[in-house]
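S1.2 Input.
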Amino acid sequence: MGHPMTDDTLAYLPDFTSRKRNPAHGWAFDDLTDSLTTWMDRYLTLAITDGCSDDVARKITLHLARFVAFFRDAYGHDRISTCPRRDVLAWRTTFWEQGLAPAPVTNHLASLSAFTMWVHAQVPRLFPIDDPTKGTRIAMIRKVA
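S1.3 Output.
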């Protein structure tokens, strides 16, 4: 049998190597702090910037920044490891209380959901209990007058 492959023995081809595994980029995830902001910056760099138009990337950045602001206002910190599903539901409720139409609420939740799914795929045990957006219904319940 041959020797085991390690990062020291592998040759990386720029067009065929995942950026998260390529040591030349320095984008491994073990260097990230327990911060929503830090993880969102890495997400925007790796998953959004290269694959979206500038307008879409700007909107996603705005949506995620709004969640971080909501989280900081609620807890005084942005530790990602303490972000449970109830915070996502509470954030969604604030939009409804503001009278936002269903489309912007859905867009905000979709941006957050894509982010949390990406984080959960990179480090499955980072969130306290699974992906916090999992099971949050995006549909808005219409009030009866």
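S1.4 Remarks. The helical segments are 36-48, 54-75, 85-97, 102-122.
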